[in-house]
Specification:
The complex is a heterodimer of chains A (191) and B (181). Chain A is an all-alpha fold and 191 residues long. Chain A has a single domain, classed as Tetracycline Repressor, domain 2. Chain A contains 6 helices and no strands. Chain A is globular, with a radius of gyration of 18 Å. Chain B is an all-alpha fold. Chain B has a single domain, classed as Tetracycline Repressor, domain 2. Chain B has 5 helices and no strands. In chain B, helix 1 runs parallel beside helix 5 and helix 2 runs antiparallel to helix 3. Classes of the chains: A mainly alpha (191), B mainly alpha (181). At the A-B interface, helix 1, helix 3, helix 4 and helix 6 of A face helix 1, helix 2, helix 3 and helix 5 of B.
């Protein structure tokens, strides 16, 4: 049972369970950061794209984390089975897709509207902006949610605490995929 | 699982947090990053560290609440060991990310200011992780008392506030670094 391994009373066991994964995650994040650095020239012309990076990464990571945390609690309580085919897990994933795409779209439109009033010139055609947002949000949601379900179930079966495992994995790959998909979307949409 | 309850609790919070993230983006693009060459490469690591470590901490508190071993009346005592782990890992991994970026970026010919990166990154990590840990404890206690499932709200709140907070701290420490040198 995963529940037996919730070592909440000892900081060393938390560090021991987390550190290897976190090191890998930090390394992947730095690679993602390197991709960002390679786009510095684009950000100088279109600061809205740099401002969109935390938005897409956050919503991607949040929806993956919320779903992972829900599955984790449900698995601990025994209300869903640790299988991808479980109906409860599939329904949760379906609603998570809906929430994720809607939240990114609303945030991106707000970003486009709000930035000029904060003194940042957007300098981008709204149609192109929506194209960039749709391409990158579709990529993030369709990758992060299956990843969240798979890692939560895997961690639970292996007896690891999904709390120490799913969230780091989901946030990191969400960031990497978010940054990469923005790069691809920008290359496709901005001439 | 209650689908309608999930949507009702999670959708407004996630959308609101996405919109709040706009300010993180705004702070990021106006933070004066260019003053510390190579720092942009550490930004995703710095942001995700907050979500990873403080988010895991908050999620752990949520599971403890579900299992009935989180005492909302004595939250600090219950969370003490988790708190130690958070502070320690924040410092260690922010330095790790800073050093990794400083080693990798020059390979692609990108200039780096190693001392500037390590200064900004480590101080940002200490400041924001201390603040966020306390916020995690307060929000899990509050959502527990308000009978809201912490899984649906606390983790995203911590991740989002953490993003904005670490970018604000980063902008401050970039400014401080520029003043010092």
């Amino acid at each position: 049972m995963g529940g037996d391994n919730l070592n909440y009373n000892d900081w060393k066991s938390i560090v021991r369970e987390s550190y290897a994964l976190l090191m890998i995650m930090m390394f992947i994040e730095v690679i993602g950061g390197g991709i960002l650095s390679s786009m510095e020239a684009v950000f100088t012309v279109f600061p809205i794209i740099l401002s969109f990076v935390p938005v897409i990464n956050a919503v991607g990571g949040n929806i993956g984390s919320v779903m992972g945390a829900r599955l984790s609690s449900a698995l601990h309580l025994g209300s869903v089975k640790a299988e991808l085919s479980d109906r409860g897990i599939r329904e949760t994933a379906g609603i998570s897709v809906l929430i994720g795409v809607l939240a990114i779209l609303i945030s991106a439109i707000s970003l486009y509207v709000i930035l000029p009033s904060m003194g940042v010139s957007v300098l981008m055609n709204p149609v192109k902006w929506i194209e960039i947002v749709l391409i990158s949000s579709a990529a993030v949601v369709s990758t992060v949610l299956p990843l969240s379900a798979i890692t939560t179930i895997w961690a639970f079966r292996k007896g690891k605490s999904p709390d120490d495992f799913t969230i780091p994995v989901v946030c990191t790959f969400g960031d990497f995929i978010g940054i990469t998909s923005i790069l691809i979307a920008v290359k496709l949409v901005v001439p | 699982m209650d689908k309608a309850k999930f949507f009702r609790e999670a959708f407004p919070v996630l959308t609101m947090l996405g919109v709040i993230e706009i300010f993180t983006g705004y702070v990021l693009s106006g933070s004066g990053l260019a003053a510390v060459p190579g720092l942009l490469a550490v930004v995703p690591a710095l942001i995700s560290l907050r979500g990873n470590i403080s988010g895991s901490f908050a999620s752990r508190l949520g599971s403890m609440a579900h299992l009935g071993i989180f005492d909302p009346d004595r939250p600090l005592k219950t969370a003490k060991e988790g708190l130690k782990a958070v502070i320690l890992m924040s410092i260690a991994f922010s330095l790790f990310a800073g050093i990794t970026a400083s080693l990798l970026l020059p390979l692609s010919g990108h200039p780096v200011d190693v001392m500037g990166i390590l200064f900004v990154v480590s101080l940002t990590a200490v400041a924001s992780s201390s603040f966020l840990s306390l916020l995690s404890i307060v929000s899990v206690s509050a959502s527990f008392k308000m009978k809201i499932d912490p899984d649906n709200v606390v983790v995203p709140i911590i991740a989002t506030v953490g993003d904005l907070l670490s970018m604000l701290f980063m902008a401050f420490f970039i400014w401080l670094w520029v003043v010092i040198i």
